[in-house]
Amino acid sequence: MIPIRRLIASVATAILLTASMIGTARADDIPAPATIGTEQYLGGSFTMDRHLDGFEKPLTSNGDFVLSPARGLVWRTLQPFPGTTILDDHGITRIDDQGNRDELARGDQFRQFVELISAVLAGNWQPLEQRFDITRDTTEQGAWQVILTPKDGSTIQNQISKITATGTDFVENVRLEKPTGDHDAITLSDQALQSLPLPPEFAALLTGTGQ
């Protein structure tokens, strides 16, 4: 089973990466992902392949997610082990398949972290430039590509050595490379922007009444 805290760290980092990619949209000649308005949310599906040293095949998980700059992020794993991770103004919470809540992070530090993620995904990517060196390019297929490298002295260097993200209208692929040589490959699909309110099952999770 994939360690939950490592999984959450990858999810959070992926989002930051995604944000970073968005943040790199300085040049008008390179396309950038769509901005999520404060009255909108982004929903979609994900597949995560975790490649670990010593394992011949990746550990694969999949599920769906909802991101609202105004409300937070719900990352719901459906296979192989059901569970939900919530990032909101209060911090990071994990809900297992029995409905048990585990508050993994609380306090101002993590609140700022979640606010940073939301800001980036909303198109306000400037804060990421303080943590990453960002380079942008386009692929042969016309998609944008963003590479994020932690700045020297950044604490995130202990967890991530490089992040590569590609996409068109939205972030579609994220590769997280780690100092250990392990890497995660995350594919986001079936994404669509919708107007609030959130679907009831996701809204209930963010308010703490869904379990």
Automatic annotation (TrEMBL):
Keyword terms: Signal
Keyword DNA-binding (UniProt): no
Top-level taxon of the source organism: Bacteria
Signal peptide range: 1-27
Entry protein name: Outer membrane lipoprotein carrier protein LolA
